[in-house]
Amino acid sequence: MVTETLQLDQMPRTQGMRIDMRDVCHEFTLRGSPLPVIDHMSFTVDRGEFVAFLGPSGCGKSTLLRLVAGLETATTGQLTSEGDRILGPDPQRGLVFQDPTLFPWRTVWNNIAFGLEARGVLRGQFDRVNEALELVGLSGFKNAYPHQLSGGMAQRVALARALVNQPSLLLLDEPLGKLDSLTRMTMQGELLALWQRTGFTALLVTHDVEEAVLLASRVIVLSSRPASIKAEIVNPLPYPRHRDDSRVIQLRRRVLEFLSMDGAL
Amino acid sequence: MGSVGSLTTDVKINSQEINTSALRRLYVGVWRMGLVAGAGWIVAAVITVQWPDAATWDCTSLLARLEFLVAGILILASAVSVQLPPSLAKLRRFGPWLLAFPLLLTAWEIVTAKLALLPLPFFAPPQSILQVYIEDWPRLCASVMASVLLLMPAYFIGVIAGFGAGVAIGWSRSAYYWGHPILRFIGPMPATAWLPLAFYFFSSNRTASTFLIALTTAFPVAVLTSSGVSSVNSAYYDIARTLGAKQRFLVLKVAIPAAMPDVFVGLFMGLGSSFAVLVVAEMLGVKAGLGYYLQWAQGWAAYANIYAALLVMSLLFSGLITLQFQLRNRMLAWQGGLLRW
To answer: Which of residues 313-332 of B touch A (CB under 8 A)?
Structure first.
């Protein structure tokens, strides 16, 4: 029997990471002509903040995370982490996609060990893999292959794989988007517990208003493509938040209003 | 109302099943198909030994004795099949084949040895093939050895070359620019077309054949490997890079493992065409191996030897492909589900 509760005691704390975006524009080239995706965007995320980006689908939210991850370089503008320009991917900035994207040829354990192995530090750090595995409650599945896992389990493994590097920033690209609503609610709680316990900075991209309001300490509403910041809503409500709390419902309504102004909903 | 009715019939069926299950177990215990197949082999044996041959063959009675032996084994296995270990119990799946085989064998026996309906030197009866195995087995074994010793090193050279080229072409832009046109124009040419040149360029026919087998293997392996590597889901690379993977690690630990299912398709195709080149090379230049044996037997109009060698060849090549599939299933266990061929 597998316990799906989080084992947070061993998780080391991080300082979190400060992210600065200054006047960033980004465009793709589509059939020879430029397609603007991000339009003059500036924001700052402080160490240990949980910021949710909300926007209509296709607005460029995922591109935003790819820029912060260092997988792409912004066309113009400046993007820094702790004052240093982001020039490429870094294990300090972990990424979780909507699809778990586990390496199907690796067992659960070996998927989680990937980051340590890639950095050449796996030898002697097996404990860290085991801890990450325990953290997401999947110790019993360490020898399973990804095709044997349910959607929620696979996404937990993806989370553990990102966390094994002890990142100070976690980029979450609709990580719960494809899960059934029950698993989704459980994992929202787990994500929150992980964040509170370890102190990383979290950037969450989602189009689920309720999820943004429940998890984030600040919600940034984006316009449709090219994405620009339409509103910033600071969410001071204490954790744990409940979805039927009247203040949560009120906040949700306000965020929805900002979103629908654009005619996106 | 309707649902209640169907429920009661279900229950009735269940109780009937319980009543008959003990009986059925006893009934199923005897392998009936095995008994029928055994009877088929007895028929084959009786026809072989009782019906006089149209010409003289030394091994007719030996063939009949072997057929009786198979019949005996099958009937014994049928009787004790409840106690058979699971590995032997698998034999049951082949029941219909075990019956069809003696029937076909007997039909062949009748039209060749008994009635001589088919022109004789070309259509050898079963007992003449049996005779080849008894008299000529040392030469057949030597031929198998020679074929394997020529094929295996050449195949491995081809696999390594094709795999290396495929990874490079699939991964690197410049390797693709220079390698892909070569692959496109050289690859589709049948390796046998190079034979006249190869026998001239290389110091020995053996080296020439090794080169040709390697060439014919390398082409499908390279094509499939490169397409496998270049079609790897880019999200794997993204995730790997954010986890700290550098170029070398991406190739070795992401691109190659992700491409392995395609690589194995290439290995399968390469093995198949390597057989073709092997046999042609042995027929035309290398004076050893199963291909040479066929050539030699044809020269003597020894058609029974040809059938015997073809049978050995089919077992050898089929065995090699099976071996490769087992390797594939072991290495690609992560895909879940075995692939049979």
So the answer is: 332
Confidence of residue B172 (pLDDT cuts 50, 70, 90): very high
Mean model confidence pLDDT for chain B: 87
Domain covering A19-90+99-261, topology: Rossmann fold (3.40.50)
Residue of B nearest to A70 (CA): B242
Which residues in A lie closer than 8 A to residue B244 (C-beta atoms)?
89-91, 115, 118-119, 165
Q: Are A215 and A29 in contact (CB under 8 A)?
A: no
Q: Are residues B249 and B107 in the same domain?
A: no
- Judgement on whether residues B83 and B217 belong to the same structural domain of the protein: no
Residue B182 C-alpha, separation from nearest chain A C-alpha, in angstroms: 29
Considering the entire predicted model, what is its pTM?
A: 0.83
Residue percentage of chain B with pLDDT more than 90? 64
Taking only the tens place, the pLDDT of each residue in B185-233 is 988 888 888 888 888 898 888 899 999 999 999 999 999 999 999 999 9
Q: What is the DSSP letter of B112?
A: I
Q: How many domains does chain B have?
A: 2
Of B114, B136, B151, the domain-final residue: B114
How near does any CA of chain A get to the CA of B251, in Å? 12
Is the CB of B337 inside 8 Å of chain A's CB atoms?
Answer: no
Collapsing DSSP states into helix, strand and coil, what is residue A88?
Answer: coil
Asked if residue B150 has pLDDT above 50, the reply is yes
B1, B5, B7, B8: CA torsion to nearest 10: 140
Closest residue in A to B238 (Cα) is A71
User: CATH no. for residue B326?
Assistant: 1.10.3720.10
The predicted structure's pLDDT at residue A113: 93
* Residues spanned by the domain of B329: 126-335
CA distances from B269 to A141, B165, B218 (A): 36, 16, 10
Q: Answer yes or no: is B317 within a domain.
A: yes
**Which uninterrupted H or E stretch holds A154?**
helix A151-163
B336 touches chain A (CB under 8 A): yes
> CB-based contact (8 Å) between B239 and chain A?
yes
- Inter-residue contact A64 to A114 (CB < 8 Å): no
